[in-house]
């Protein structure tokens, strides 16, 4: 069940952003050469920007954008086979509201925090994430949980309803 691109960017929510699984499994499976990290927080941290850029192969292009910068850049010059990484669900809604093209959203990793409920072994949500997922569902944004490219898709909305209430 290897993921494939449509004409839309592949979007993954992973609060770790770039790590071995992303660089080895996902980039390879997607055959992407361009990664955008879309995070207002990360883009504002010069040390984190440097660490992220130094964590990938020189054969890949990596840009770290605030949401507004990603929207402006996309409008000026859409990228083929674009792999977008966000830290959280809020960025997805902000991108969508700004007109960014969104197909499917892959939720691959949200770490446990006190008060969070596990949707699977890598995705945990609290009340804020549950509200954001409800908002995404009301906007008809297709989202699923998938840790690795060959894993089956888990409907995040159904899982949230079962686990969160």
Question: Mind explaining what this structure looks like?
Answer:
The strands form 2 sheets. The chain has a 7-stranded mixed sheet with strand order 3-2-4-1-5-8-9, with helices on both faces. It has a two-stranded antiparallel sheet with strand order 6-7. It has a domain at 10-109 and 143-152: 3-Layer(aba) Sandwich (Fructose Permease). Helix 5 (89-97) packs parallel to helix 6 (127-138) and helix 6 (127-138) packs across helix 7 (156-164). It is α/β, with parallel strands linked by helices. It has helices at residues 20-30, 40-43, 46-54, 67-76, 89-97, 127-138, 156-164; strands at residues 10-14, 34-38, 61-65, 82-86, 105-109, 117-118, 124-125, 143-145, 154-155. The longest helix is centred in the last third of the chain and has 12 residues, at 127-138.
Q: Can you summarize this structure?
A:
The protein has 165 residues and is an alpha/beta fold. The chain has helices spanning 20-30, 40-43, 46-54, 67-76, 89-97, 127-138, 156-164, and strands at 10-14, 34-38, 61-65, 82-86, 105-109, 117-118, 124-125, 143-145, 154-155. Helix content is 39%, strand content 21%.
Q: What layout of secondary structure does this protein have?
A:
Elements (H helix, E strand, L loop, with lengths): L9 E5 L5 H11 L3 E5 L1 H4 L2 H9 L6 E5 L1 H10 L5 E5 L2 H9 L7 E5 L7 E2 L5 E2 L1 H12 L4 E3 L8 E2 H9 L1
Parallel strand pairs: 1-4, 1-5, 2-3, 2-4, 5-8
Antiparallel strand pairs: 6-7, 8-9
